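#struct-pred
JK: can someone run the complex with 2-phosphoglycolic acid? inputs below
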Amino acid sequence: MRKKLIAGNWKMHHTVAGCLGYLDKFLPAISSSTDVDILLAPSYTALYPVGQKLAGHRVKLCAQNLYFKDSGAFTGEISVAMLKECACEAVIVGHSERRHVFGETDELIQEKVNAGVTGGLQVIFCIGETGAEREAGQTSEVIHRQLEQGLSGISNDMCDQLTIAYEPVWAIGTGVNATPEQAEEVHSDIRQWMGSRFGEPVAGATRIIYGGSVKPGNSAELLSKVEIDGLLVGSASLDPDSFCAIIQNLQ
Ligand code: PGA
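RT: done, structure tokens with the ligand placed:
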């Protein structure tokens, strides 16, 4: 049985003060929701103070990105060791905005997945097709390419540090979510691919979560699908009440 995972990606929102105020409201509100793993991904500047506040708490800290080198002349970048020093236990890699706004390629993303996993972080590896690719019937092909390239350096024994996030680009921040049936179809496809690449036990144990316009009003239906092991939530995680409602919908 795969434990559900709900992750909040705050993107470039919330200052340090905003994050700490959020936690004052959020942490007591979710205290009864114990049967779920929860991750919060604040901006880089808030990682350290949020990590301090989460110390000993079951809500875990997640970074939104990393760079794959250990150190060096890489202005503006951040290493796995720096993230771990802030108490990060997880990192998002290959988010659609990294791919489409910042031009990250499958090759770069593969280096980042490797660095995160070998550095001991849980990696939330994001994949998803654009609207044009879906309309052209290329969803499966695109997903397979992203999996093939992104996970090319990963061996079976590393897969327990891996979560796959299916995030259709057309659903991110648009208010139009994939229907539970559309998401389940792609999740099944991903699990089959995982099975052929890593074997059935790994495929059966790997969490595949959905992201893209998740809200309190659609989260329960999405989570009712057996192939949907959790949610990666952007906009609706920015408000503690709405993120808390999504977590409580799971109960
Ligand atoms: P959204 O973002 O929930 O605002 O659509 C999801 C994401 O980018 O992970």
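RT: quick notes.
The pocket of 2-phosphoglycolic acid is lined by residues 9, 167, 172-173, 211-214, 232-236 (CB under 6 Å).
The two ends are 16 Å apart (CA to CA).
JK: thanks, will look after standup
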